[in-house]
Amino acid sequence: MVVGDISTGTDVLVIGGGPGGYVAAIRAAQRGLDTTLVEKDDYGGVCLNRGCIPSKALITGADLAHEAGNAEEMGIHADPAVDMAGMVDWKDGIVDRLTGGVEKLCKANGVNLVKGTATFKDEHSVRVAHGGEGQGSESIEFDSCIVATGSRPIEIPNFSYADDPVIGSREALDMDSIPERLVVVGAGYIGMELSTVYAKLGTDVTVVEMLDDALPGYEDDISKVVKRRAKELGIDFHFGEGASEWRESSDGGITVVTETENGEESTYPADKVLVAVGRSPVTDTLGLDALDLEPNDRGFLETDDYARTDIDHIFAVGDVAGEPMLAHKAFKEGIVAAEVIAGEPAALDYQAVPAAVFTDPEIATVGMTKAEAEEAGFEPVVGQMPFNASGRAMTTNHTEGFCRLVADEGSGFVLGGQIVGPEASELIAEVALAVEMGATLEDVAATIHTHPTLAEVVQEAAENAEDQAIHTLNR
């Protein structure tokens, strides 16, 4: 029996239960608004289910196995056996706990949860199609709506994710066995993270990239550190080559064919090919034709400083609202959207949004680079501290990379920072706080840091910018 269409109403409708959506829904409910969250898949979105969390779990597992098997210098001799299915089960357990936690938090805060796909009927209502045969649909009227539909992996010609040897990041996180040979298409942050995971687990990894270097968007001296380490792990890079097709080979695997701009072809043997060329916003399920609202040329819903789209009562947050596609950016946008709807004086400020890449070593950045500071009209001063001069880094046996601070020379205000090295994703929080609060180099340098810790590199970088570093040579 098909359940008939019913109609309900809500103050705030949130479409999508990922980082931006569930945070927005909880905050709206906390502000006393009747809030409904529609999610067609799993609560927590890509981040919790198929991205941030599961990938970091596998990175931790791969790191542990690799460290144990390569610690002879520390007097440790081991040959760990990796049960990939067991590692994936462990990862899935973490994901299940977190996604279940999101659902419980929403319910505890009074958010109405609806499973299904929401499509706009007009500017103040949607129809939600419930999954499964005979489940029917319902209409929901709203005063305000927050779109948080996220993004999906980009598919390239001749590499359909429906073909068994072709995988995206989702499938790469669920494999129950370790492939002997893996070709990775794309040397951005997703491709580099997963390449590192599988190289540490013993896979022969080949990376092909259309551009002329890995990790586009990061400064050369940062990407160079990561690329050098990746080569030490056995990862083979081929730049200036785009993947054109794949075909089955006589050994039971596949052959990936690439082509340069000049038409030169190369072939690489593999058992799987991971396509990691980026993500695109999901707007095609929304029925935007029912609204006077169109995505921009890149497919994003453009918003103002209050997360509003061109329609005042319709907001967009997270990946669907534009770069950078970061979960913590989505968190903030969701909070701002909910508070604006509640009539509070909230607004977005992107000057201190950190970003991290969980490669080996990690990369983390926030604020301006030196070049960006110069372009903005500042006279920047730069301080830098290498990890190979850090006692704590030495005791972890990870001394690659450096911490760099960028400040305005006249005022001393910290404008940004770039870290490549151990625990960079954790260390960047101090720099982000410095940028957000308007701290100076003197503030950072004068703050007593625990010894011995990796965090001391931030203090030393600040002192280096002022020509008074103790544990590294001054500029």
Core attributes:
475 residues; alpha/beta; five-stranded parallel sheet; 13 helices; seven-stranded mixed sheet
In short:
The protein has 475 residues and is of the alpha/beta class.
Describe the structure.
This protein is of the alpha/beta class. 31% of the residues lie in helices and 25% in strands. It is built from 13 helices and 22 strands. Strands 1, 2, 3, 4, 5, 6 and 17 form a seven-stranded mixed β-sheet that branches. It has a five-stranded parallel β-sheet with strand order 8-15-9-10-11. It has a five-stranded antiparallel β-sheet with strand order 18-19-22-21-20, sandwiched between helices. It is globular and about 65 Å long. The mean pLDDT is 96.
Question: Which helices and strands appear, and what pairs or packs with what?
Answer:
Blueprint: E1 6-15, H1 19-30, E2 35-39, H2 45-50, H3 52-69, H4 84-108, E3 112-115, E4 117-122, E5 125-129, E6 137-147, E7 151-153, E8 166-167, H5 169-172, E9 181-185, H6 189-200, E10 204-209, H7 220-232, E11 236-239, E12 242-248, E13 254-259, E14 265-270, E15 272-275, E16 279-281, E17 314-316, H8 327-341, E18 355-357, E19 362-367, H9 370-375, E20 380-386, H10 391-396, E21 402-408, E22 414-421, H11 424-437, H12 441-446, H13 456-465
Parallel strand pairs: 1-2, 1-6, 2-3, 6-17, 8-15, 9-10, 9-15, 10-11
Antiparallel strand pairs: 4-5, 5-6, 7-16, 12-13, 13-14, 18-19, 19-22, 20-21, 21-22
Helix pairs in contact: 1-8, 3-4, 3-6
